[in-house]
Amino acid sequence: MIEYDKDAIVPPYITEYLRAKTVHNDEFMHSLEKYAEENSVPIVEPETARFLSVMCRTVKPKKILEVGCAIGYSSILMAQATDDDCEIATLECNEDMVRIARENIKTSGYAGKISVIEADAKDYLSYIDDDEVFDMIFLDGPKAHYIYMLDECVRLLKKGGVLISDNVLYKGMTADDNHVVRRKITIVKRLRKYIDMLMEHKELETSLLPLGDGVTISVKK
Ligand SMILES: C[S@@+](CC[C@H](N)C(=O)[O-])C[C@H]1O[C@@H](n2cnc3c(N)ncnc32)[C@H](O)[C@@H]1O
C-alpha cells in the first residue's frame, strides 16, 4: 500500500486511482524513482510526470529549458517524449545533483539531447541571449524564487511557447491560510504572488491545475 501525504492537495483515494491508471514499465525510470525516494530527492509526482510527457508530445518543442534538474528524472522524461532534434538545457545549482544527473543522463542514452548546466538559475537566466528562445520552460527549482524568474522566463519563451511551473499549490498552503505551516510562510507568500503575477501577466494566459502539488501551464500570447 502506497503511503500518501496527508497534506496532499488531492484526496488520497483520487491520487491512488490516478497512480493506478498511470503506471509505466520503464525499468530505468523506476530505478530513478526508487533512488529519489530512498534519498529524499524531490522529483515530479507520477501524475505530473505523465502530464509533462503529454505536453511534450503536444507542443513538440525543439528547445526546452528546465530550472531544477535534481537527478535528471524529468529531463530524461522530456527527452523520451520529444523528437531526436530537441535540445534540453537543465539548470542545477547543487554539485552532487549535477554529477548524479550527468551519470543518469549518460546511462539513459540521452546525453546528446540534454545539457546539465551547473548554475544558480536566478543569475544564469539573465545571461541567456534573447535569441535563445525556448518552446517550453519547466520551472521546478526554488519555489521562493519563481517570482524573480518569471520575467526572464517570459523573455526567453517563444510566442506560443509554454511555461509549466510545478508545486504552485504547495500542499494547499497557497490556497488557504489554515493550511500554512509557520516556517513556510515566506515561500507561501511568494507563491501566492507568483500565481497573481501569472494570472495578471499581459503576455501570458495561464491555467492553474490541482495536479500533483499544483501545476500552472501558461502560454505566451
Ligand atoms: C524539485 S527538484 C527538481 C526535480 C526535477 N525537476 C525532477 O522532477 O526530476 C528542485 C531542484 O532545484 C535545485 N535548485 C534549487 N535552487 C536552485 C537554483 N537557484 N538554481 C538552480 N537549481 C536550483 C535543487 O538543488 C533541486 O535539485
TrEMBL record:
CDD domains: AdoMet_MTases. It catalyses: 5-hydroxyuridine(34) in tRNA + S-adenosyl-L-methionine = 5-methoxyuridine(34) in tRNA + S-adenosyl-L-homocysteine + H(+). SUPFAM superfamilies: S-adenosyl-L-methionine-dependent methyltransferases. Keywords: Magnesium, Metal-binding, Methyltransferase, S-adenosyl-L-methionine, Transferase, tRNA processing. GO terms for molecular function: magnesium ion binding; O-methyltransferase activity; S-adenosylmethionine-dependent methyltransferase activity; tRNA (uridine) methyltransferase activity. It comes from the Bacteria. It holds the Pfam family Methyltransf_3. GO terms for biological process: tRNA methylation. S-adenosyl-L-methionine binds at V44, S74, E92, D120, A121, D140. Its EC number is 2.1.1.-. Mg(2+) binds at D140, D166, N167. Transmembrane segments: none annotated. The keyword 4Fe-4S does not apply. Catalyzes the methylation of 5-hydroxyuridine (ho5U) to form 5-methoxyuridine (mo5U) at position 34 in tRNAs. Homodimer. Belongs to the class I-like SAM-binding methyltransferase superfamily. Cation-dependent O-methyltransferase family. HAMAP family: TrmR_methyltr (MF_02217). This is tRNA 5-hydroxyuridine methyltransferase. It comes from Hominilimicola fabiformis. The gene is trmR.
